[in-house]
From TrEMBL, chains A, B:
Subunit structure and binding partners: Homodimer.
Pathway the protein acts in: Porphyrin-containing compound metabolism; protoporphyrin-IX biosynthesis; protoporphyrinogen-IX from coproporphyrinogen-III (O2 route): step 1/1
PROSITE patterns, per the entry: COPROGEN_OXIDASE (PS01021)
Cellular component terms per the entry's GO annotation: chloroplast; cytoplasm
Pfam family, one: Coprogen_oxidas
UniProt protein name: coproporphyrinogen oxidase
E.C. number: 1.3.3.3
SUPFAM superfamilies in the record: Coproporphyrinogen III oxidase
Organism expressing this protein natively: Capsicum annuum (Capsicum pepper)
Length: 398, 398
């Protein structure tokens, strides 16, 4: 019933499921390992006879009780089987970075919320990798806040690899390509309609050489972004948010902010509405045409900019008085958020169709959302101004 | 940014946008006619430079002030240019039927609601066809009730036509295939968590011979169904609903109910959840291997069965007292409804991507919906029983 999906290398992920580069496939029996809820209760599943045209599934995750020091395979982490230099590998340092970001963001959010606490779920996959989901739900300030990290070891079809980065030697016919991917993803939905939603996601992707062509080149790239989705515009807030993004970018390359700002406006486009999900920020993907260390530093800088970009805004707006009408408009915009994430977001749609951890993927959805038939804000109203800025993206910094 | 979609002939539509058989395409300039909201206000659109990989768009609709006697082209309706026999054509009779069903259902719903009134929007498309959307929002009984009819004249790629019904003569290389499609679609969401949501959709599809191969065979088929989505199970209600569906089926063919009941369970499957949207009913598509008159009668019988199948249930449950917990569970199930419609429903996803009338397509979404992280009903609870029945479809009639 599902359309087959084979993501192009330019596909992008912004959901809490940060890996979407390829239609993963597994030559093992995990192909039949369809996603299922891990019910504490005992509802037995019917055997469902849908034709499974999905070309890949991710291994089913297993809940674990304690978060491990690392989700890397031993051979990757400089432990028993690894060399000590592996501890300094980009994958090891990237995992360390995203876990530190998860910790610092969660700490900052609990402090702002002044009541809500994050619930943590940790899981691992038999073939290596795993993740930590943290969710704060129905707090004082946040309706729903999810901050996830995950590490995935997978195998992708050689066609995808070749499509991604053509191998110079056309004679090489690689087999399945092992890959590594790691990322942090977060969506924060506050209760107050004047406090904006924010989303960020930073990820690193690396392929091994194909198993049967060990001489073929490895590949790596970085992707990510941070974007703001208010229901009402406070220009000072939007400017502050964008200026922090620009500041992070400018430390590395003056071309980054204008380029990634536009990329963000283009990516978060709800095509059927002709409008963007929100007021943007920065977004980039498949970034590998710079020095690898520089891009690791850049990703780290961006991820560390989330707190200074966002927390002052939510602090300022969390207690602003509002009416039922303000709340209803926020809920309508939340409906747009749902539409974008379920219809367009590559990470979400890929995750849903390949058997990622559903509750982690869909924690990006707001606690509540609303759809009114043919709602049209009055010209010149605050709601109209927001919609206008979603339809016609603005340059916030001059 | 969008994956290209080319629906197979087995694709199915259940949304309020009943036409999804093919990736429509138009050789005219309407290809660039991206969907846009018809704002009463004057927000100017930015020119958006997304690559448009969608292979087809539907012509932009124009609001009209009065509903016409028919949406058929003159040549189809036995009018000025048509022959009088056209008034008895299947397309003419099908349009008459769906418009009568729209009227009778809306009348019955307003009566049950005892307050809410339907708002009507009528539109037409320059190349022929059009539709009537009727929405009752925030009534006494119904949170949101949409009942739409539409008639589409379009052109589809010859590949789709050939895939649909292989042409015996392999030498025929047809050009674009003109087609006709008409349908009624409806989703009714009551407020009371004990009153179930119902959806129905009946549609008729017909191709002309290709313009450059007038001798090639015409094709036609019928599709549709009616299905029930409660948040709580009252067995007598579900049995009543299914028995009315079975009654309609049994008048025509004893194999219909078991076959279409299973088809319904299979279609409304939320794959990433491993559960169905609701408790089913009947669903069929691409039906053309019976007498055409018989199938027209059968579709009519099914559409006319909506009122006796549903109205007694909503009458019985609309005033049942409920708690906040009951409401929250209904809202969670509404979230599942949104997930199915935006992620899987062929009609919705097709409509969104080809430029159908957005407000008509998305009127199927509930007024409000909810997503809680990792919600799991207590074993044996009423919520658990509903979930169990969505995971393991039951035979309601014995």
């Amino acid at each position: 019933m599902l359309p087959s999906i084979l993501c192009s290398p330019s596909s992008s992920s912004t959901s809490l499921f940060p890996f979407n580069y390829f239609t993963l496939y597994s030559p093992s029996s995990s192909l039949t390992n369809l996603p299922s809820l891990t019910y504490k209760t005992t509802i037995k599943k019917s055997t469902h006879n849908h034709s499974t045209r999905v070309q890949a599934m991710i291994e089913k995750e297993t809940p674990v009780t304690q978060r491990p020091y690392t989700f890397l395979r031993e051979s990757d982490e400089g432990g028993a089987e690894g060399s000590s230099s592996n501890a300094n590998s980009v994958r090891a340092r990237f995992e360390k970075m995203i876990r530190e970001v998860q910790d610092s963001v969660c700490t900052a959010l609990e402090e702002v919320d002044g009541g809500g606490k994050f619930k943590e779920d940790v899981w691992s996959r038999p073939g290596g990798g795993g993740g930590i989901s943290r969710v704060l739900q129905d707090g004082n300030v946040f309706e729903k806040a999810g901050v996830n990290v995950s590490v995935v070891y997978g195998v992708m079809p050689p066609e995808a690899y070749r499509a991604a980065r053509p191998v110079d030697n056309g004679n090489v016919k690689p087999g399945p390509i092992p890959f590594f991917a790691a990322g942090v993803s977060s969506v924060l939905h506050p209760k107050n309609p004047f406090a904006p939603t924010v989303h960020f996601n930073y990820r690193y992707f690396e392929t091994d050489a194909p198993n049967d062509a060990p001489g073929a080149p490895r590949q790596w790239w970085f992707g990510g972004g941070t974007d703001l989705t208010p229901a009402y515009i406070f220009e000072e807030d939007v400017k502050h948010f964008h200026s922090v993004q620009k500041g992070a970018c400018d430390k590395f390359d003056a071309s980054f902010y204008p380029r990634f700002k536009k990329w963000c406006d283009d990516y978060f486009y709800i095509k059927h509405r002709g409008e963007r999900r929100g007021l943007g920020g920065i977004f980039f993907d498949d970034l590998n045409d710079y020095d690898q260390e520089m891009l690791l530093s850049f990703s780290t800088e961006c991820a560390n900019s989330v707190i200074p970009a966002y927390i002052p805004i939510v602090e300022k707006r969390k207690d602003t008085p509002f009416t039922d009408e303000h709340k209803a408009w926020q809920q309508l915009r939340r409906g747009r958020y749902v539409e974008f994430n379920l219809v367009y977001d590559r990470g979400t749609t890929f995750g849903l169709k390949t058997g990622g951890r559903i509750e982690s993927i869909l924690v990006s959805l707001p606690l509540t959302a609303r759809w009114e038939y043919d709602h049209q804000p009055v010209e010149g109203s605050e709601e109209w101004k927001l919609l206008d800025a979603c339809i016609n993206p603005k340059e916030w910094l001059h």
